[in-house]
Amino acid sequence: MTSMVAPINVGLQFRGNWCNAKKKVEDKAGEFFQQRFNSSCHANALKKKRRFSLLVSSSRGNDTMNRITHVQLAHLTTEMLGSESEAHASSLVTFFRGSFVEDRFVYRQIFFVRSYEVGPHKTTTIQTLMNFLQETGLNHAFSCWESKDNFGVTHEMEHHKLIWVTTRIQVQVEKYSKWGDEVEVDTWFDTAGRNGVRRDWIIRDHYTKEIIAKATSTWVMINRETRRLSKIPEPVRQELVPFCFNKLAIATEEIDHQKIHKLTDATAERFHNGIVPGWNDMDVNQHVNNVKYIKWILESMAEEVLKDYKMTNMTLEFRRECTVSDYLESMTCSSSKVIGVSNNNSVNRQPELQYIHLLRLQNNKEELVRARTEWHLKQNQH
């Protein structure tokens, strides 16, 4: 009996070893690479090579599992790929079904808003948006360094026992998507000072291209065993540099560089105690996932604010890690009580409400996260 072969799905990712491939593929991405094959046989003499390989999956007959094999390609250089149209660029699909755009410096991921990702307002929550950002950033890292098992680290980072941690993130929200909406998230990164990296994101409606949210963040490296801050080793820096992209998601004048003042028992207006991280709150680096902190921070917000207002800006400063054995308390206060006047410098984004938040350990009062949030009435946001 002759078995039927399903159409071949092609994905793109960076790899290391190369040889010629004459595998005929049936979709547009495959046709593109087949066309380029004949003109790339002598590509070894060209400069600025970027190495790629195809992931080809096919299912035969009644097989219940897709068989995935690596098909090696001839060299495809930056010049060759950069000369193709945007239509061709969109066919460069990665293992995670994202794609590279803007000369392969920007990574784009598409998300459908699921029913379990919307809140009481029937729109996405800030946690949902943060999860979109995190997932896109990790998929980007894997597509650059094939680091799936190591949660976004490069090969040299793994060799030096280093992992990424966030120190600060700012998110500006223009609107919140609804259940069933399709959004696209663009992300890229650049170096920030001697020992940091900045990662930015823009979320758009996939069809109208309307901006939904923008975010910027800073990251550093720590030793995964000692949990101590580390400088960026030169071999790691050399892995990062080819992918760095000097572009800002949030305009310079709107980036929140202001110090977030510390709350105390005397200045805080609202408290929520007894927050206990569970095992399912941990990520693969054995500490609390950053998105979990947002939910806990908002536990001490007044219910009427959560019901009648929408968060339009949030800045988080991460001070230390949190583990499953910790007990936490959340504190919130109007920023005017702490600093007298609002310290928002953006003329175009003056909030109607602004709050300072603190998440700390309950026993020794050590700080975990400082935050500042800005809010507008729901009907005023549209």
Mean pLDDT: 78
Topology, number of strands: 17
The proportion of residues in beta strands is: 25-35%
Taking the alpha carbons of the first and last residues, their distance comes to 61 Å
Description:
The protein is built from ten helices and 17 strands. The longest helix is centred in the middle third of the chain and has 20 residues, at 126-145. It is globular, with a radius of gyration of 23 Å. Strands 6, 7, 8, 9, 10, 11, 12, 13, 14, 15, 16 and 17 form a twelve-stranded antiparallel β-sheet that branches. A three-stranded antiparallel β-sheet has the order 1-3-4. A two-stranded antiparallel sheet has the order 2-5. With 382 residues, it is an alpha+beta fold. 30% of the residues are buried.
What's the short story on this structure?
Its main location: plastid. This protein is an alpha+beta fold and 382 residues long. It has ten helices and 17 strands.
List keywords for this structure.
382 residues; alpha+beta; twelve-stranded antiparallel sheet; three-stranded antiparallel sheet; 17 strands; 32% strand; globular; disordered N terminus
Question: Helices, strands, pairings?
Answer:
Elements: E1 9-13, H1 28-38, E2 49-50, E3 53-58, E4 67-72, E5 76-77, H2 78-82, H3 86-89, E6 99-101, E7 106-112, H4 126-145, H5 155-159, E8 162-173, E9 182-192, E10 196-205, E11 211-223, E12 229-230, H6 234-240, E13 270-275, H7 290-298, H8 303-308, E14 309-318, E15 328-334, H9 335-339, E16 353-361, E17 367-377, H10 378-381
Antiparallel strand pairs: 1-3, 2-5, 3-4, 6-7, 7-9, 8-11, 8-14, 9-10, 10-11, 11-12, 13-15, 14-17, 15-16, 16-17
Helix pairs in contact: 4-7
